[in-house]
Amino acid sequence: MLSCPSNAVFHRLLGSTVHAVLAIAALGFACNPVAAATATPVAKPSPANIALTFDDLPGIVLKPQQDYVDATNKALIAGLKRHHFSAIGFVNEGKLDDIIRARQIAVLRRWLKAGFDLGNHTFSHSSPNQIGARSYIADIARGEKVIRPMMDHAHRKLQWFRHPYLETGSPEPVKAEIDQWLAAHGYRIAPVTIDADDWEFAEPYDNAVMKGNKAEATRIRDIYLAYTERTIGWYRRASMALFGRDIAYVMLLHDTRLNADCFEGLAAILARQNMHVIPLEQAMLDPAYQTPDNYAGKDGVEWLERWSLTLNKELPWDDFEDVPKGIEKEYNRLDSQ
Ligand SMILES: [Zn+2]
């Protein structure tokens, strides 16, 4: 249930040589929507709304290859447009200089030009619990130097903020100071009410793609999509336990090659789940989002878990399923290299 990867691998590999050939070879990997569509048939669930949010723009990638990042974003944007989905991307401006700055900025422009929103995800993707309220607030302010003028120029309002790791500040005075600063600077916190830990699958997937191992890439995509569909089902049951209905969900995804290559599979899941994609702003009109978030613990947890404390209601933890062990093991292996 912890969110967002450490960027250790990304930063550690900055000195690596760019293997454009591998990135080009990777373009042959695409999700098989037929395989995804042949999952166990079930009665269609009742309709529900969902907002799609993508963190860590201009992208999370195992190795700093600009061609790979560009291809990922082009495919992701094309998938969103093909299905007429709205989306918002949360930016870490600290990543702009990690590969080729002008092309990284061009990725952000591409998102805006496609009609999607951008939000602030801090400059360096640090944890408020590690650096404290002052430094964290400075990191948020530093995280809008490029995107604020870009949004202004596009006549859009920069208003959404997403906490890295979903850590909102601990203990309570730290959280209160951050909340106060955000509100005073016109930011709204973007909560998360569906989190299928996609980041944990993404690095093993990049590794398979970059090594040209198509069988392994296919295997990871299939496991990821099946896990995501089961996890969405769990969140719907969790919403039922808290509110007796489907709330308008906000799903956390990341700007990764995995999601780009799986896009048709993800869209098929939403169709089977009878879920209609709406903008974040619209999802936030659901009165559920007015439930106070009094959680000030250290762990980054999503909002249904926070509200279960506020409302003093249990979530259906008995049937919550963790990320498959094999994926977790492979992620840890790559992260420790
Ligand atoms: Zn993140």
What would you say this structure looks like, in words?
With 337 residues, the chain is an alpha/beta fold. The protein has a single domain, classed as Glycoside hydrolase/deacetylase (TIM Barrel, Alpha-Beta Barrel). Helix content is 48%, strand content 10%. It has 15 helices and eight strands. The strands form two sheets. Strands 1, 2, 3, 6, 7 and 8 form a six-stranded parallel sheet that branches. A two-stranded parallel sheet has the order 4-5. Helix 5 (101-113) links the parallel strand 2 and strand 3 (117-120). Helix 6 runs parallel beside helix 8. The two termini are 23 Å apart. 47% of the residues are buried. Zinc ion (ZN) is lined by residues 4, 55-56, 121, 125, 164.
Short description:
By secondary structure, the chain is of the alpha/beta class. The chain has a single domain (8-335), classed as Alpha-Beta Barrel (TIM Barrel), CATH 3.20.20.370. It has helices spanning 8-12, 20-26, 33-37, 66-82, 101-113, 128-142, 147-153, 172-184, 198-210, 214-243, 257-261, 263-272, 280-283, 303-310, 325-335; strands spanning 48-57, 88-91, 117-120, 160-161, 188-189, 194-195, 249-254, 275-277.
Summary tags:
337 residues; alpha/beta; TIM Barrel; six-stranded parallel sheet; two-stranded parallel sheet; 15 helices; 8 strands; 48% helix; globular; disordered N terminus; binds zinc ion
Provide the residue-averaged pLDDT. Answer: 90
Distance between the termini: 23 Å
Low-confidence regions = 1-36
Rg: 19 Å
Number of domains: 1
The molecules bound to the chains, other than polymers, are: zinc ion
Q: What is the CATH T-level topology?
A: TIM Barrel
Q: Tell me about the largest β-sheet.
A: 6 strands, parallel
Number of strands: 8
Q: How many helical elements?
A: 15
CATH class: Alpha Beta
What CATH architecture do you see? Alpha-Beta Barrel
Find the structural class using helix and strand composition: alpha/beta
